[in-house]
Design brief:
By secondary structure, this protein is of the alpha/beta class. 44% of the residues lie in helices and 13% in strands. It is built from six helices and five strands, in the order βααββααβαβα. It has a three-stranded parallel beta sheet with strand order 1-2-5. Strands 3-4 form a two-stranded antiparallel sheet.
């Protein structure tokens, strides 16, 4: 980010992918809040990520094993990330995501998970 012009390059803050890559979404949000143009909210199960890394599995395998969770069911501090964005004046869209592999992952239940994520987000944003 330091090597780019803030007037030309913004940031899509993808909480799940930042964490999957080993980063801290709250710290990235804090450090680069003024450059956030889009937010993709995704929760991550750190124990599944650790297992995937220990076994040297790929990203598709991680998704199949349920590395991404409905919002609030994973390990990420989404409240902290959202609070940081709120304090910085972010007023854009929040895109809720949960990567799954339908027909492969035994725990994939998109409708159930979308309802859980919506309930969690509604609660957090009302606070």
């Amino acid at each position: 980010m330091r090597d780019t012009d803030p007037a030309l390059v913004g940031l899509c803050l993808d909480t799940g992918h930042i964490a999957y890559g080993g980063g801290d979404p709250v710290e990235i949000a804090r450090t680069h809040a003024r450059r956030v143009r889009h937010v993709h909210l995704k929760d991550l199960r750190r124990e599944v990520r650790a297992d995937v890394l220990a076994r040297h599995l790929g990203f598709r395998d991680a998704v199949s094993l349920g590395v991404f969770a409905p919002l609030g069911d994973g390990s990420l501090d989404l409240r902290g990330a959202l609070g940081t964005l709120r304090e910085a004046g972010y007023g854009g869209w929040l895109i809720v995501e949960q990567d799954v592999r339908l027909g492969v992952s035994p725990i994939a239940a998109p409708l159930r998970d979308a309802k859980r994520s919506r309930a969690y987000l509604t609660e957090v944003l009302a606070a």
